[in-house]
Write a structure and sequence with these properties.
Layout (H helix, E strand, L loop, with lengths): L1 E3 L1 H4 L1 H16 L12 H24 L13 H19 L3 H6 L15 H23 L2 H16 L3 H19 L1 E3 H25 L18 H4 L7 H24 L6 H9 L2 H11 L22 H7 L1 H21 L7 H14 L9 H4 L1 H13 L6
Antiparallel strand pairs: 1-2
Helix pairs in contact: 2-3, 2-11, 2-16, 4-6, 4-7, 6-7, 6-8, 6-16, 6-18, 8-16, 9-11, 12-14, 14-15, 15-16, 16-18
């Protein structure tokens, strides 16, 4: 008996799976800080699940995605050397390497490294894009040299102690592998579950390493998060609490925003909504100033002030109520369809962008990733190089 991978490689089905998983984790109730799910939120997700399921079925019928091998005549080593030169410049500018600082006991917090303005955004997004493209080439011909290149392109995120960066490199590669498999047997499915559970533990372990004071105190993250007594005193490894907080908090914050906006009289802010929720952040940050619109006070909508993840629907709901959340749902559908029209499925770059887009859908459970240029800007490279390829100009 085999399991069809379309449930994870079709963006509409993935949306359903992602938020269903978030709700399952939320239901563990390892923290008493989160409010109960309201009827209105149940209705919102039920309607969205039905709508996305219909789109998913239509998509499977008329635009089924299959794995297409790609071949390159260019040596990736030159581009990889240029990428590492870029990170070397950044490390020199910063005055060290975060991972080395932590290993040698130098006081370091994950927000200390900011990189060179604009340069870091271009460098990190291109690195992510190129890593997935190399992984696609590896799956096409199984060259160990290409897999080695992929690992090399992952390393900068480890040197930066950037867990988010690691996720946005591993997730698209995983989706790409699932597309190639098409189906998996249940034995492999349970192996994958085991790897995911191990990944959650590793996420918590690295989380404790990111801040110097938490290295020797794995209970530090539990302070102020209203951890349940059953979890604190139970046998489950405490590293898993990091994963629980990161997965459950977005839904808790969204529910809290629904509760607060229901009590207070909502004042719609369509201009701020359009600029900050529909435009990439590298654009919105530069133009919002000219509109002289005050940022909404988000803290009162959050369950815990230091946990900011809040799903793609949190800010739209604060700014526009349920209409804002619905617009984001329709916005996602539109962008998925637009990508298919902009990048032909026959392009060498189609699957790279497709898997990046799947990662955006997955991570929309945390925040509106469509406007986060650190990931969404990678789609620009796919569109650009697909256009150049169509014009018979091959650069990479």
């Amino acid at each position: 008996m085999r399991f069809n991978t379309k449930w994870f490689t079709n963006p509409f089905f993935l949306y359903i799976f992602s938020f269903a998983f978030v709700y399952a984790v939320y239901s563990l109730k390892w923290s008493g800080a989160y409010p109960n799910i309201s009827t209105s939120l149940y209705i919102f997700f039920t309607i969205s699940f039905v709508a996305y399921y219909v789109f998913g079925v239509i998509f499977e019928r008329y635009k089924k995605i299959t794995f297409t091998p790609i071949v390159s005549f260019y040596n990736p080593l030159v581009i990889i050397c240029i990428i590492y030169l870029g990170y070397t410049i950044e490390f020199i500018n910063y005055g060290g390497i975060p991972l080395i600082q932590i290993i040698t006991g130098i006081d370091y917090h994950h927000f200390d490294f900011v990189g060179i303005k604009t340069f870091h955004t271009v460098l990190s997004t291109f690195t992510g894009f190129y890593a997935i493209l190399i992984f696609h080439r590896f799956l096409s011909n199984h060259s160990l040299k290409l897999f080695f290149y992929y690992v090399i392109l992952v390393l900068p995120n480890l040197l930066l102690m950037n867990r988010g960066g690691l996720l946005v490199v591993f997730a698209p590669a995983s989706f790409l592998y699932l597309i190639k498999l098409r189906t998996i047997n249940y034995k492999l499915f349970f192996v994958a579950i085991t790897i995911i559970v191990g990944g959650f533990w590793l996420f918590g372990f690295l989380g404790n390493l990111r801040n110097t004071e938490s290295i020797n105190n794995k209970y530090l993250i539990m302070n102020g998060t209203k951890v349940s007594k059953s979890f604190r005193d139970g046998p489950i490894p405490k590293e898993f609490f990091w994963g629980y907080l990161y997965v459950a908090t977005p839904l808790g914050n969204f529910q809290n925003a629904v509760n607060v906006t229901k009590i207070e009289k909502l004042k719609p802010q369509p201009t701020y909504f359009i600029i900050t929720q529909l435009l990439p952040d590298f654009i919105s940050k530069r133009i919002i100033y000219y509109f002289r619109i005050a940022d909404p006070v988000e803290d009162k909508y959050r369950v815990l002030n230091n946990l900011t993840a809040s799903t793609a629907f949190f800010m739209p709901h604060i700014l526009m109520g349920w209409s804002g959340s619905i617009i984001i749902l329709l916005f996602s559908i539109t962008l998925i369809i637009c990508y298919v029209f902009l990048v032909p499925t026959s392009s060498s770059y189609f699957l790279t962008g497709w898997c990046i887009m799947l990662t955006i859908i997955l991570l929309n459970t945390f925040v509106n990733m469509w406007v986060y240029s650190g990931l969404s800007f990678q789609l620009f490279y796919c569109i650009l190089f697909a256009y150049l390829e169509k014009s018979r100009i091959k650069i990479i």
